[in-house]
Every structure is written in C-alpha cells, then in structure tokens.
Design brief:
ATP-binding; binds N-acetyl-L-glutamyl 5-phosphate; 292 residues; eight-stranded mixed β-sheet; ArgB; two-stranded antiparallel sheet; 14 strands; globular; Carbamate kinase; nucleotide-binding; binds adenosine-5'-diphosphate; alpha/beta
C-alpha cells in the first residue's frame, strides 16, 4: 500500500491552481445521471464537489436524470418501463410518475444535499418561467418516412438561459430537472442528456460533463475510447457499437462540442469525486468528445 505524505497532499492541492485560474467565472454544465446516484456516499461527494467548484469561482449548473428512480416507482405501481432508442415511452400515467420523481424527489434530494454542504442550490424544472420550451418528439422508424410515437416525450424547441444566468450571478447553484413545457403548458419528458447539451450551448459553457455508470465510451472489445471526433462517432453509430442510453448522450455531447462548448466529457460517476478529478486535476478521466 502506498502512503500519502503531507508533501503529496500539498502537491495535489497545488496542482489545482492552474485549473482554478483557467475556469474562474466559467460555466460548467454537469449532467448527473440517475445511474451515478448509487449510494449516499457518492451523492454526498457529488454535492461537496459542486459546492467546492462554486466556492473557487466557477458557475456549476446541474442537470439531473433519474431514469432508474422512475423505473423503481413504475415497478411499485405495477408498470414496466419501456425504452426505444434510449428514450422512455411515456403515456399519461408514466408522465405523472416522471414529474413526481424528477421534479419532486430527485430534484429536491440534490438541492438539499448541496445546501447541506454550504451551497445555495435552487431547484427548477422547465415549467419554471417556461424556460425549457419543448414540442412532441417522434423517433425515426425502420423506413425513412416512418415516425414512431412514444407519447409525451419532448424535444427541445428552445431554452431561455436568463433564469439560470440570474441565479449564477447571485451565487445560487441551479439544479434542473429535464421537464419541458409547450405554449399551452403541457409537460414533456425530455432525456436529461439533451437538456444538459442544449443548456451548455445556450449558456456558452466552458465545459459539459456527463456523469454516467460506465468509464466512458467503449469500443466493441470493451476498451475505453479516450477521445472521439464526429467522424469516429459516425462509424460507431453505423456499426452498432453505440446503443441504448449512450445514443442520446453522444448525440448531445457532439452537438455541444460543435456549437462551441470547449470541452465535453463523458465520465464515470461511480468514482468518488469524479467531478473534482475531471475539473481540477491532470487525471484525464473518461471520454472526451471533440467536433474535429
Ligand atoms: N459503446 C458504448 N460505450 C459505453 N456505454 C454504452 C455503449 N453503448 C451502449 N452503452 C450503454 O449506455 C449506458 C449509459 O447510458 P444510460 O444508461 O442512459 O446512463 P445515464 O442514466 O447515466 O444517462 C451504459 O451503461 C451502457 O450500458
Ligand atoms: C425521454 C426520456 O427517456 N427521459 C428520461 C428522463 C430522465 C433521464 O434522462 O435520466 P437518466 O439520465 O438517469 O437516464 C426518462 O424518462 O428516463
């Protein structure tokens, strides 16, 4: 076993200095996936990391998922969760569960944890100030003109960044549940990766970090792909290497990179303090997505 001395600790701390200098005043959008909310210790660690980033001058904005947590409540009421192309088929009853779990339980749990560690978190859904405008999403079917209806699932029409920017400027930490709304006030279930990617774009974020339950994007032999560009991603889509929940994740990561977000990463949220390691150290964790 290696022992960490006081000098090692000091070195580790001072390694953070150039990153703090580089990212002060910069917006960092963090997608906290439901699969990375495994236990209390990890959730506490995540909340501490977010508070630390805020205290050293960055603007962390949290977008959370909660897919497994929605499945759990659906199970309890005897309903089975169904996904097509990484998107949940959402009938009216499922939408009620989605709003309860994402807008209620998961959102408030993260807000409360961040506040417990000294941050000032504020929970929002797209219903607040109608800031995430959505329209019904249809998936592409097997033939080119076939569209698949998956219920009350939304795609983003636009995001108004002003509420989030006001909260940032007043030292609050926005914690956002991926629920959108249309002009008539109808709610839509939106994949959290899509909300995080679009939010990073409209906030002109420096970084987008997608925290999930796998070390990063893997090739067919299970090797971690540390860097991916648009061309390689097209190949991985075409040969079926990327599937399920990784489909919307990579698409929104690539869209964010193409729209000017400087660094986009998919990292393993099951590693304690993965967020700090990504932002403040040299340890390159996970997969970095670049437009070119
Ligand atoms: N090529 C791939 N590399 C890594 N994960 C992949 C790949 N293709 C599909 N996946 C799946 O995508 C999952 C991550 O997506 P998802 O379950 O939606 O996570 P989250 O809840 O964090 O958004 C992984 O756990 C893995 O099962
Ligand atoms: C349309 C759609 O699939 N919405 C997702 C929203 C939550 C989410 O994205 O959660 P994770 O990030 O934990 O997977 C769902 O209902 O599961």
């Amino acid at each position: 076993m290696t022992t960490i001395t006081a000098a090692d600790k000091a070195n580790i701390l001072s390694e953070a200095l150039p990153y703090i200098q580089r990212f002060t005043d910069k917006t960092i959008v963090i997608k906290y996936g439901g699969n990375a909310m495994i236990d209390e210790e990890l959730k506490e660690g995540f909340a501490q990391d977010v508070v630390l980033l805020k205290l050293v001058g960055m603007n962390p904005v949290v977008v959370h998922g909660g897919g497994p947590q929605i499945n759990e409540l659906l199970d309890r009421i005897g309903k089975k969760g169904e996904f097509i192309q990484g998107m949940r088929v959402t009938d009216a009853e499922t939408m009620d569960v989605v709003e309860m779990v994402l807008g209620g339980h998961v959102n408030k749990e993260i807000v409360s944890l961040i506040n417990k560690h000294g941050g000032k978190a504020v929970g929002l859904t797209g219903q607040d100030g109608h800031f995430i405008r959505a329209r019904k999403m249809f998936l592409k079917g097997a033939s080119s003109d076939e569209l698949v209806d998956i219920g009350q699932v939304g795609e983003i029409e636009k995001i108004d960044p002003s509420i989030v920017s006001h909260l940032d400027a007043a030292d609050f930490i926005p914690v956002i549940a991926p629920i959108g709304v249309d002009a008539s006030g109808e709610s839509y279930n939106i994949n959290a990766d899509l909300v995080a990617g679009k939010l990073a774009e409209v906030l002109k974020a420096e970084k987008l970090i997608l925290m999930t339950n796998i070390p990063g994007v893997m090739d067919k032999d299970g090797n971690l792909l540390t860097k991916l560009t648009a061309r390689r991603i097209d190949e991985l889509f075409a040969d079926g290497t990327i599937s399920g929940g990784m489909l919307p994740k990579i698409s929104s990561a690539l869209d964010a990179a193409k729209s000017g977000v400087n660094s986009v990463h998919i990292i393993d949220g099951r590693v304690k303090h993965a967020l700090l390691l990504e932002v403040l150290t040299e340890a390159g964790v996970g997969t970095m997505i670049r437009a070119r």
